[in-house]
Each structure stands twice: as structure tokens, then as C-alpha cells.
Write a structure and sequence with these properties.
- The protein has 5 helices and 20 strands.
- The strands form 5 sheets. It has a 6-stranded mixed β-sheet with strand order 1-2-3-6-4-5. A 4-stranded antiparallel β-sheet has the order 8-9-12-13, with no helix packed on it. A 4-stranded antiparallel β-sheet has the order 14-15-16-17, with no helix packed on it.
- About 30% of the residues are buried.
- The longest helix is centred in the first third of the chain and has 18 residues, at about 60-75.
- The chain is an alpha+beta fold and about 400 residues long.
- It folds into 2 domains: about 5-210, PurM-like, N-terminal domain (60s Ribosomal Protein L30, Chain: A, 2-Layer Sandwich); about 225-385, no CATH class.
Length: about 400
């Protein structure tokens, strides 16, 4: 098992809470602690004697590298670093002046980027020295640039020159904080990451997180390729979030969609293409005993985080979209046959009308004689509701 396989195993079931916007898997964790205009960035990294530096490495450069690695991760999120904690594990017979020079390197780089060193921990490690840095920073709410945002057709760029680690550049690289913030401000960046293992080693992290290949085309997941025996795929083509009309509310900053979570079995069959005839080469079947589950979801567009969801009651066979209003409501046709409205910020159900309809249309809104109405097709009928003032 290599390092990355171990990371996947350890992070697969980590606990989370409502503050987590982005957890393990990116350059920094992103946390929402309630500030109206920003998110918190949180990062930790370590350098170990014999792996990242040697006994002969100038101590100031050891300190520079220890903090610089974390600063580069903040840069990869287009963020601004704020404060750091340092943990240093020392052999029994340590050199006080050598350790002091390490801190000189850390402090000089911290001052250059206006980072406060606010404490830490010292402990003993008999065999070799280890320095761990925990760094916090911030980024404007919704503006963190993640690994997972790459899209088919994107170009790949780097800042500065690659290579030179064997010549000592790994000890004196420049964290690209200013460059990253400038790029994020002036261009619609889809993804960024820190190059700590070189382009060939780090680019796959973006590709895996984004589902895009290095050739710029969507990446085919091996687990979803049909076979003659059949492959169970979750979510399947009739699920996911790609069928029903969606809505966006500028006031909440949330994206609303009716999502179907359903697994199906993909089969590959022998077929010969003929001009003028449909060609499939396979078929899709439902998983015996498994029913799909429908949810009305509010999603944060920048991260994909589900802010709230409203489970639907019913067989999961409706195909209606959603409508969000400036008054803070989300209208939708539910799986229970009712036409309902939920609070756009919290998802709390506010109102419901038992239409007993199998929805295959999306709500619409219009203004007549100064009054706003919401309408939706229900079978051969159109149901219209007048909204109260301000909604």
C-alpha cells in the first residue's frame, strides 16, 4: 500500500459536521464558521529529517520550507494566510542555535506574508527532527478554487519554472500567494493545486477530483462501463441531477435541483450499426428490490456541498423541475402528487396543495395587474396560484 492508497483508506469515513465545506482531498480544508463574507482555510504539513532535509541543510532553509509548504497550499485555494502554530520534535541532543536558526527562517517568511506565529508545541523524537506547521487563512465566501472544478477542454498552466529540486530549489521556492489571488480575481479559474510532487505527480490529483482526463475529455469511470454480465452503477442514467429543470437564487447563493438517487444495471449486448436505425449496443435495467429516492436539494455551486435537502415521499417517478422566487421560496411538484413550497434558505416546508398529479413539468411565474402568480401544468390542466405580497 502506497501513501495515496493509505490516505484514501483513512479519509474514507472521517466524521464531518455542518461547518465543513470541503474536507480531506484538497490542498486545504474549507470551513464555514458563519462569517458572512468569508470561509476559513485550514492546513497542516510536516517536514522530516532524512526525507525533506538533511543534517547538512542550512537551518534557515529548513524553517523556510516548513512554513512555505503550507503557504503554497493556501495559495492553491486563492486564499490569504493568517496565523500558524508550530510543532517541533527534537532529538535528545539538539543544538539550541541550530533550532533558533530554523525559527529565524520561519519568522522571516511569516513576516513577508503577514502571518502571525501564535504558538505551538515542542516534544522529543529520539531518532530525527520533525517540524509540523498548522496554518489558517481565509478566502472570500464561494471563491475558493478547488481541485474538483476542472472541465473538459481546460488548458493547463503553471506559475514559474518546473524542476530544480535536486539543485536545492525545494528549499527556496516562492509561495505563489499574490499570483494565485491575482489570477482568481482576473480569470474564471476552474481548478488549482500546489505542485509539491512535480507536474506529473500532482496533475492526476486534479484529474481524479474533477473526473477529467489529461487530454481534456471527460474521464470514463471503469466501474460504470457496461458488461455482458451487467454492472451496477450508482447513480445511474435515470438518477443523478441531470433531468429536471433547476433554479438559482442570488439572495441565498444556492442552486436548487430535484435529484434522483437510483442505482441501475448496465448491460452490453451485441449489436451492429445500421444507417437510419437506432443503435444502443446495450440496455439498462432496474436493480431488483431497490427503489429510487428523490430529494429536493439546495447546493452550494462553488463546492457542490448539499446545504439542505427535502426527501420526497413517493415512488420516485415524477420529472418536475423547481422554481425559486425573489421572496425566498422554492416551488416544486413532489413525488406525493402535491404542489409545494419550501423556504429557500432552510428547506423548511411552508405550503402544500394536494394536486394528486404525476408531475412532468416545471413551475413558471408571471405578473398580471401587479400581482405575481405561480403556475404548473398538471396533466391536461394548468394550476395557478396567486402569491401574497412580498413573496
Amino acid at each position: 500500500m502506497n501513501e495515496f492508497e493509505l490516505i484514501r483508506r483513512l479519509t474514507g469515513s472521517l466524521p464531518a459536521n455542518q461547518a465543513v465545506v470541503v474536507g480531506a482531498g484538497d490542498d486545504c480544508a474549507v470551513l464555514d464558521l458563519g462569517a458572512p463574507d468569508r470561509w476559513l482555510l485550514f492546513k497542516t504539513d510536516a517536514v522530516v529529517e532524512g526525507i525533506h532535509f538533511t543534517k547538512d541543510t542550512p537551518p534557515e532553509k529548513i524553517g523556510y520550507k516548513a512554513l512555505g509548504r503550507c503557504l503554497s497550499d493556501i495559495a492553491a485555494m486563492a486564499g490569504t494566510p493568517t496565523a500558524a502554530l508550530l510543532t517541533i520534535a527534537l532529538p535528545v541532543n539538539f543544538d539550541t542555535d541550530f533550532i533558533g536558526a530554523i525559527y529565524d527562517g520561519i519568522n522571516a517568511l511569516a513576516r513577508r506574508h503577514d502571518v502571525a506565529i501564535v504558538g505551538g508545541e515542542t516534544t522529543t523524537n529520539p531518532e530525527r527532527m520533525l517540524i509540523s506547521v498548522s496554518l489558517v487563512g481565509c478566502v472570500a465566501r464561494g471563491k475558493a478554487v478547488l481541485r474538483s472544478g476542472a472541465k473538459p477542454g481546460d488548458a493547463i498552466f503553471v506559475t514559474g519554472k518546473l524542476g530544480g529540486s535536486l539543485a536545492g530549489r525545494h528549499l527556496e521556492f516562492e509561495p505563489r500567494l499574490a499570483e494565485a489571488r491575482w489570477l482568481a480575481e482576473h480569470f474564471p479559474l476552474h481548478a488549482m493545486l500546489d505542485l509539491s510532487d512535480g507536474l506529473a505527480g500532482d496533475l492526476p490529483h486534479i484529474l481524479k477530483a474533477s473526473g477529467v482526463g489529461a487530454d481534456g475529455r471527460p474521464k470514463v469511470e471503469p466501474s460504470s462501463v457496461p458488461t455482458k454480465e451487467g454492472v451496477k452503477v450508482c447513480p445511474a442514467v435515470s438518477g443523478a441531477t441531470n433531468w429536471m429543470s433547476t433554479a438559482f437564487n442570488p439572495a441565498t447563493g444556492l442552486f436548487y435541483v430535484m435529484a434522483m438517487e437510483q442505482c441501475q444495471i448496465y448491460y452490453k449486448t451485441e449489436a451492429v450499426w445500421e444507417a437510419g436505425k437506432s443503435y444502443y449496443g446495450g440496455e439498462i435495467k432496474n436493480v431488483p428490490g431497490e427503489k429510487g429516492k428523490k430529494y429536493l436539494r439546495a447546493i452550494e455551486p462553488a463546492t457542490g456541498k448539499i446545504v439542505w435537502e427535502q426527501p420526497q415521499t413517493g415512488p420516485g417517478n415524477t420529472w418536475g423541475g423547481v422554481l425559486s422566487t425573489a421572496g425566498g421560496m422554492v416551488f416544486f411538484g413532489g413525488d406525493d402528487g402535491a404542489f409545494s413550497a419550501a423556504d429557500a434558505a432552510t428547506g423548511k416546508l411552508l405550503w402544500s396543495f394536494p394536486a394528486n398529479s404525476l408531475w412532468k413539468a416545471s413551475p413558471m411565474t408571471y405578473l398580471a395587474d401587479g400581482k405575481q402568480y405561480v403556475a404548473i401544468a398538471a396533466g391536461s390542466n394548468v394550476v395557478v396560484f396567486g402569491l401574497p405580497s412580498g413573496r
